[in-house]
Amino acid sequence: MKQQLLPSMSQDIEAAPKLLTESAGKSRCSVFRVPRPLAGGNAEVCRPRIVSIGPYHHGEVQLGMLQEHKWRYLQSMLDQTQPHGVGLEDLIDILAPKVEMIRKCYSESTDRFSGPDLVKMMVLDGCFIIQFLRQMAGVIQIDPSLKNSYVLASVMQDLHRLENQVPYFVLEDLFETANVPKGTLSLADLAFHFFSRFPEVFGNVWERRSNLKGVHLLDSFCLSLIPWDQRDIYPLNKRSSHHLIKSASELHRVGIGFKQREASTFLEIKFDRERRIIRIPKVTIDDLNWILPNMVAFEQCSGQGDGHITSYAAFMGYLILNHSSMSNEDVAHFFSDVCKDATFYVKGSYLDSFGLAIVATLASMIQIVYALLQLYHPS
């Protein structure tokens, strides 16, 4: 038996891991395969429905329709750039030296793609994204296929899914190379135009517009939600906080109430100490159920246990919101499932700066439901 096992076991020992590479634990890694618990028990929400971007879902049969359309988008870009001396070879040349840098951005091995194949994928997918963003901003004419509302909504959502990302520097390099003649809108401008297509979720994103750029589109989207006065505390020092939240308290019983508030982003939950009221922007679960799990999964996979989105989702897991088709219990379960296995500290998170850590200390943060029922469903 020993002679049978030694060769195969030795080979397995020497083999490099494929599903979780060494880059997964390093800061440059930004595109993750999502463990099931971090997506509310449904990792499918982090996977594309209609268009694949990047290596994880490349070549999947059900995503083939728009794969063919990508070539039309690339041709439309070249039609704009070639009269100004920028051709396909220039797009290839700008990414070819960065193959290893691109590979290190993915937690799962991309070795099944050769260097040329990976560059081909990045050029094709990157140009597709840029041309799509230009269409959303009204810079170029919209593709007739996107006039189908289902296709358009699906593509917009797929570009925010964690397993469906390309590094932002890929988009930057392609955009700067192909931006001839120089347009008035930057890549960041195009991204903010795109984000503003979701006003129910993002509020007035233009109030928070800046040149902030994330490691990919999903990260940029997360950053666009963060209020200006909270950006300098992100990420946070985890050693300053040791109070891991497991449950919420009966805040109503200690005299803390709840009111809705107008805000530029749903993250702006505030505690009015004088009136002992937590003020919460109203949201609809239908607007969050596809994006919130992706944002939480990204923060958790990248080690941002005190991240703004995780903090919000974990806190809201203890609250109930008005929703048209879900029962109150279903809504509570939605938030709690999103952060079921997430690490979350309220002390030291952005909620701390809004005065909510003192609420956690005061009331020990255990389950509340009925206080909010009175707010949204008064008798």
From TrEMBL:
Transmembrane intervals: 354-373
Presence of keyword Transmembrane: yes
InterPro entries hit by this protein: DUF247_pln (IPR004158)
Keywords annotated in UniProt: Membrane, Transmembrane, Transmembrane helix
Protein name: Uncharacterized protein
PANTHER family referenced in this protein's UniProt entry, alphabetically: BNAC04G53230D PROTEIN, PTHR31170:SF21
Species per Swiss-Prot/TrEMBL record: Eucalyptus globulus (Tasmanian blue gum)
